[in-house]
# Entry
Amino acid sequence: MSTKGVATGHAISPDSGEHWANEGAWKVADGIHRIPLPLPMDALKAINVYVVEGDDGLTLIDGGWSIPVARELLDKSLRSIDSGFGDIKRFLVTHVHRDHFTMATVLGHEYGAEVALGVDEKPALELLHRASLGEIKGSPFLEVLRTAGAADIADLWEAGHDGELPDAADWAFPDLWLEGDRSFEIGHRVIDAVHTPGHTPGHYVYADRAEGVLFAGDHVLPTITPSIGFTVPAVEQPLGQFMASLARVRQLPDLRILPAHGPVAPSSYERVDELLAHHEERLELCLASLRARGTVTSLVVAKDLGWTRHERAYDELDVFSQGMAAMETKAHLDLLVARGQATSADRADGVEYTAVN
# Structure
C-alpha cells in the first residue's frame, strides 16, 4: 500500500534518468547493474534484478518471474553488458514469491548456478509442491481470508481460480538454505545476508556496506509498502516481525536502497523511519475503529480505512485488493492484541477483535 513520495507509476530512477521500469542494464555502481523485468500484472509493472560482477562470474540478486518475455529480456540485458546465462554462478533470492524466485530456480537448475533462499520459506515451498501434485484443492489463502471475516471474498477468489496447478519446476528447492545472518564474498566485495522476516518469513536483504548499497528486496520499498499478512502457511505476528526487521535494517549504516520494485533511493534510514511511522499510524486507525465499532472482524475494520496513496474506500478496490486489505488489517489487529491494546476470539465467521479500554 502506497505511502508518501513519488508514485511508483511515475518514478524516475537516478541510475537511468528514465522511468524505473524501462528496460536496460542500468549501472548502479562499479560492477553492479539493475535490470528491470516485466510482470504480468497491473499493480506492479516490473521487478528489478541486480547483477553483481565477481571474479568467477555473476551473482544475481533475485531472478524475476519465469515467463518467456522476462527470460528473453534478461538474456538481452545480460548480453548488453557482454554476459549471458552461462556466466551466472549464484542467485541470492530475497524471498519465495514467484516474481523473485521462479526464474532463479529455473535458470539455476538449467545452468548449474547455485540458488540460495531463506530456510523459513521452506514451508511455503512444501505447500506449493503439494499443490502441484493436486493434494491441495483451491487457494491456500482462502482459510486466511475466512479468519479475517472475508468469507464472501474467499468465495469470489475460489470462483475465479482457473484450477491450474503450480508447475513444480518453478518451485524447485534451492541448493542453499540460508539460516541466520551470514556473508558472501563476491570478488572484492563482502555482501552481508540479513534475515528480515515480515513480508515473508524467510525474507533476506543483502548489504554491501563498503559500496554503501542495500539490495532490499520487498522489505524496504521506496514508494510503496510491501503486503503484510499475505503469506501461507500463516505465521504469527507478521507485522510485528516486519517492524522488528525494519529496526534491524536501521541498525545497519545508512545505505542507498536498491529495491525490487521502484527507483533507486538515497537513504535506508529515511525510508525505514517513514515505513515505521506509516504502520504506527495504521495501528492507531485500527484501534480507533475497534473503539467505535465494538467487537468486529478484520473485514469490518478494513472497511473503515483508506487504501492506496489516494485513500480509496474499501468498496472501490478490486476483489483481489479487498482480500489483501482484509489480511493486512488482520496483521495490524493481531499486533494490537500482542501489545495488549485489543483482545481476540475465534468465531464461526472469523476472528473477532475488541479494544481494551
In short: The radius of gyration is 20 Å. Residues 8-275 form a domain with the Metallo-beta-lactamase; Chain A fold (CATH 3.60.15.10). The longest strand covers residues 46-54.
